[in-house]
Write a sequence for this structure.
């Protein structure tokens, strides 16, 4: 696996779909079962059934670094997905698995790789709908 990473070979198992949807997200405290931070804005650049690329200008939220401060996996992000056609909201928990700083001339400073956690059937269905609409656009 180390050689695959070094060579830059694709490690994802599912296809990604370009989306560009505006989203809000926050850090969730799994131990306390409550938000740890306020909501921030971002954009989903790519999405699959397993994860997404969140584009944001913030990786330090209310003094909390979204990758370095979560070594135990106890504080995932909660991402508010775009509502369904009927206006039904949907949020999904995700773990940050990587982030990269972007070039200065891009609208978002960071790309943040997310892996969705404990996806319910309702969330999975909403992800399928979003992916289908991304494929049509």
């Amino acid at each position: 696996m180390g050689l695959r990473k070094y060579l830059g070979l694709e490690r994802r198992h599912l296809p990604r779909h370009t989306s560009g949807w505006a989203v809000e997200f926050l850090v969730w405290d799994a131990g306390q079962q409550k938000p740890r931070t306020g909501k921030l804005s971002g954009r989903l650049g790519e999405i699959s059934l397993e994860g997404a690329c969140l584009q944001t200008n913030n990786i330090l939220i209310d003094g909390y670094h979204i990758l370095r401060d979560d070594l135990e996996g106890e504080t995932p992000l909660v991402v508010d997905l775009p509502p369904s056609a009927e206006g039904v909201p949907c949020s999904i928990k995700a773990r940050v698995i990587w982030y990269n700083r972007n070039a200065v001339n891009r609208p978002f400073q960071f790309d943040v790789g997310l892996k969705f956690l404990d996806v319910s059937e309702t969330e999975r269905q909403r992800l399928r709908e979003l992916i289908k609409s991304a494929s049509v656009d």
